[in-house]
C-alpha cells in the first residue's frame, strides 16, 4: 500500500503531491515515478475506488476536494 511507504518515510508529502499534480494535469493511464524510484499509475488508483471517480466528477467538487480524492486513492493503492 502506498500509505505504508508514506508512514515509513520512504516517500514524503511532496512526493504524493507530485503524483496528484501529475494525475490532475493528465488523467490518462500511465506510470508516474515518485520518491526514490517508486512508480504508480494514479489512473489505476482512481479506477480501483469507484467512489473517487463519482466524487471527482461532481460539478460542485472544487479543486481542493478533487485533490483530496486523488490523494486518498493514491495512498490507498495496494
Q: How many DSSP H or I helices? A: 5
Beta-strand content bin = 5-15%
Which secondary-structure class do the elements indicate?
mainly alpha
Q: How are helices and strands ordered from N to C? A: HHEEHHH
- Which parts are unreliable, with pLDDT below 50 for 5 consecutive residues or more? none
> Which geometry do the CA atoms define?
globular
Can you summarize the main beta sheet? 2 strands, antiparallel
- Helix coverage percent: 55-70%
Overall radius of gyration = 12 Å
Strand elements, count: 2
> Mean of residue pLDDT?
84
Ends apart, CA distance between termini: 4 Å
Oligomer: single chain
**Strands of the largest sheet, in order across it?**
1-2
Describe the protein's architecture and organization.
- This protein is mainly alpha-helical.
- The protein is built from five helices and two strands, in the order H-H-E-E-H-H-H.
- It has helices at 2-7, 13-25, 42-47, 50-56, 63-76; strands spanning 32-34, 38-40.
- The protein has a two-stranded antiparallel ribbon with strand order 1-2.
- Strand 1 and strand 2 (38-40) form a beta hairpin.
- Helix 2 packs across helix 5.
- The relative contact order is 0.21.
What's this model, at a glance?
The protein is mostly helical. It is 59% helix and 8% strand. The protein is globular.
Question: Can you tag this structure with a few keywords?
Answer:
2 strands, two-stranded antiparallel sheet, 59% helix, mainly alpha
Amino acid at each position: 500500500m502506498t500509505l505504508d511507504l508514506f508512514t515509513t518515510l520512504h516517500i514524503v508529502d511532496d512526493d504524493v503531491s507530485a503524483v496528484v499534480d501529475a494525475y490532475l494535469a493528465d488523467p490518462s493511464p500511465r506510470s508516474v515515478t515518485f520518491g526514490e524510484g517508486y512508480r504508480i499509475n494514479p489512473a489505476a488508483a482512481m479506477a480501483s475506488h469507484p467512489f473517487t471517480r463519482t466524487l471527482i466528477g461532481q460539478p460542485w467538487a472544487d479543486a481542493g476536494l478533487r485533490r483530496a480524492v486523488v490523494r486518498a486513492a493514491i495512498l490507498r493503492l495496494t
